[in-house]
Design goal:
Distance between the termini: 44 Å
Largest sheet: 2 strands, antiparallel
Bound molecules: zinc ion
Number of helices: 6
Order of helices and strands: HEEEEHHHHH
Number of strands: 4
Helix content: 55-70%
Number of domains: 2
Radius of gyration: 23 Å
């Protein structure tokens, strides 16, 4: 019994020193647990996962510049527009405007790059939008750090937390919106 099982062992195609019983269910190559990626249909090797992903990666190099620029400008614009509505509590404003501009950024980028897509483009857009918002909040953050350093921690901390919340909500909105686009079949 043990002998029989032993003969079925193969070595991982990436790690010849590792014996394994696992196989990729697409290319059938033996894979060690470290190389195996769990998918809804079973274990696959990383190469098969990658080539599967490439089918969905249609973005061209210019799309990264266009997408990044749009995301940075709109990321900045969101923080600017948010300040035009001063009657909302900062946290409520951060939530509403971050989600709204996250959606606007995705729609604008998608239109500008003719709906081409890639995982990397999503990352570029998230980072550029966050940087744009960070520039928008820059002065506010500096002012509030001064307020904190003057001993009014609570007063200075709240707007900074609201700014961070804004950037987090914007990033999550973009990620869920654009990832849905990347992985949808
Ligand atoms: Zn494979
Ligand atoms: Zn391996």
């Amino acid at each position: 019994m043990t002998e029989e099982l032993h003969e079925e062992y193969q070595v991982c195609y990436k790690h010849p020193d590792r014996k394994t019983l696992l196989r990729c269910n697409k290319c059938d190559r033996p894979i060690c647990p470290e190389c195996a990626v769990r998918t809804p249909t079973g274990y696959r090797c990383k190469d098969c996962i990658k080539s599967q992903q490439k089918v969905f990666d249609t973005a061209e190099s210019k799309d990264y510049f266009i997408g990044g620029a749009i995301a940075a400008v709109l990321g900045f614009a969101g923080t600017f527009v948010m300040r035009l509505v001063p009657f909302l509590p900062v946290f409520v404003a951060a939530l509403i405007f971050a989600a709204a501009f996250g959606k606007i950024i995705c729609a604008a980028v998608r239109a500008a790059v003719s709906r081409r897509r890639s995982v990397m483009l999503t990352r570029v857009v998230v980072i550029a939008a966050a940087l744009g918002a960070l520039v928008g909040f820059g002065q506010e953050i500096i002012v509030n750090f001064n307020i904190i350093s003057m001993g009014m921690a609570y007063m200075g901390l709240m707007p900074i937390i609201a700014d961070i919340l804004y950037i987090v909500v914007q990033s999550v909105t973009i990620l869920s919106d654009m990832n849905g686009m990347v992985f949808r079949r």
